[in-house]
Amino acid sequence: MDRRSVLAGAVGSAAVAAWGGGVAEAVDTAGAGGRRLLGPDGRPDWGAVRAQFRLDPAWVHLATFYLASQPRAVRAAVDHLARQLDADPMLVPTKLSLPDGPTDWDRVRKSLAGYLGGEAEHIALAASTTIGLGLVYNGVRVRPGQEFLLSEDDHTVHQGAARLAAEKHGARVRLVPWFADSGEATAEEVVSAVRAQLRPTTRVLGVTWVQSRTGVRMPVEAVAEVVREANRGRAEADRCLLVVDGVHGLAAVDADAARLGADVVVAGTHKWLLGPRGTALVWLAPHALAQVRPTFASFMGDDGAAPLSPGGFLAYEHAFALPVSVAFHQALGRSRVAGRIAELSTRAKEGLARIPGVRLHTPVAPGMSAGITCFSVRDLPGSAVVERAAARKVRLSSLYHDSLGYARIGTGVMNSPRDVDVALRVVRDIAG
Fold first, then answer.
1. Are residue 202 and residue 283 in the same domain, yes or no?
2. How far apart are CA 192 and CA 251, in angstroms?
3. Count of domains forming the chain
4. Same domain? 293 vs 193
């Protein structure tokens, strides 16, 4: 059975034929019922985009940023690779193919580099943001007495990676606030706080591009400029490295992650990028490569950031299908994806602000937010809001391990204005 026959079993003959035009053409023509993702005007047909996902139609899904449902083209690629692996495991890692040609670590890194606006050799691969952050903090060259500076609002796994590394290397972790009220946070307030908190001993400044706890989108470019100012005159071993947890910004914000001004960006690719589960990237600026040492033996090579990628066997059918996820986003257009996310997010924020008893904890300003909108309803825990919404078949989310525990609405490309409106009606009922 050849590879086109394999794919035909997964997505149908029309989708297979499209692979002759490459991944981008296959993605555009892989819609259900032959419906193309792009309309005659070249703009996304959001109904066709929604049809790519196997989400239960009985529910309104506003928590897909937790772990992405995969679009049809990505599922087909994963299945195509899995069939090859099952037929001959010795094809790993250099002889696996997508229907349009070979796929391997080099292709994955090149496709991600094109999306990030960077170079393939500056990318390492991991299985999650959590693992990527662990690789960075455990590997960074730090001396006793130096510190990792993070925010109280960074995810617990980011804080945890810093703490575990600090314990090993005699460093310390300092958690500070970047704003007084997340719902009113401004770029000026954040930049001023960062400037005030940086010390000569700050080895890493860890920030989150879009906070899962509050929905605040950090002004990373402006923060990077503050770090550059602080580093003037410092020796290499004393320079502050800007490490960004980028998981909720990558593919939700129209920006080149490799051009934010950060030294390191870590992001799972199985959330907003809609990639196969268990995939993530670590991008390092060229000057930062020598400052982060490998934690594991790597099977990926010895060029650039490759040695930081953990070795061992993994789900190759997932990792090697990542180019299709990138192509899916590129077919839609990154600016259009980000615009759609912002449009729906603004609709959610404006609607929540009109409900008595509901408080927004995410800034209304588009430049300070992205696809996550956090809110509270009277004195209810966020988990209670999530449970009551679920009873009405509306899927929201909250951080179960978080002391704030706000309820969250996440707006992705699979969502519609109707989804947001249904959720708003449910929240209004919960608020009484």
1. yes
2. 28
3. 2
4. yes
293, 326, 359 — which closes off a domain? 326
CB atoms within 10 A of CB 305: 28
Q: In terms of domains, do 282 and 425 share one?
A: no
Instruction: Convert the pLDDT of each residue in 32-73 to its tens digit.
Output: 566 899 999 999 999 999 999 999 999 999 999 999 999 999
pLDDT, mean over the chain: 93
Give the whole-angstrom CA distance, residue 28 versus residue 48. 10
Tell me the whole-structure pTM to 2 decimals.
0.93
CA dihedral 26, 29, 31, 34 (to 10 degrees): -140
Q: Identify the three-state secondary structure at position 229.
A: helix
Tens digit of pLDDT for each residue in 79-103? 999 999 999 999 999 999 999 999 9
CATH number at residue 208: 3.40.640.10
Answer whether 76's CB lies under 8 Å from 410's CB. Answer: no
Beta strands in 44-178, from DSSP E residues, in sequence order:
60-61, 97-98, 101-102, 123-126, 147-151, 172-176
Is residue 26 very low, low, confident or very high in pLDDT (cuts 50, 70, 90)?
low
In a domain, 365, yes or no: yes
pLDDT the model gives residue 417: 99
Indicate the SS3 state at residue 407. strand
For residue 379, what is the domain's CATH number?
3.90.1150.10
Dist. CA 280–CA 128, nearest whole Å: 5
- Rounded Cα distance between 397 and 65, Å, is 10
420 and 389 co-located in one domain: yes
Tokens 């268990």: give the residue. Answer: 278
Residue 321: domain span: 108-326
Distance of alpha carbon 235 from alpha carbon 245, whole angstroms: 25
Peptide bond into 93 cis (omega under 30): yes
| Residue 331, both tokens | 């077919």
Q: What is the pLDDT of residue 405?
A: 84
| Same domain membership, residue 307 and residue 177 | yes
Considering the domain architecture, whether residues 373 and 242 belong to the same structural domain is answered as no
Rg of the chain over Cα atoms, rounded to whole angstroms, equals 22
**Rounded distance, CA 432 to CA 428, Å?**
6
Residue 92 domain-assigned? no
DSSP state of 202: E
Structure tokens at 11: 């997505």
Which of 370, 351, 359 is CA-nearest to residue 424?
A: 351
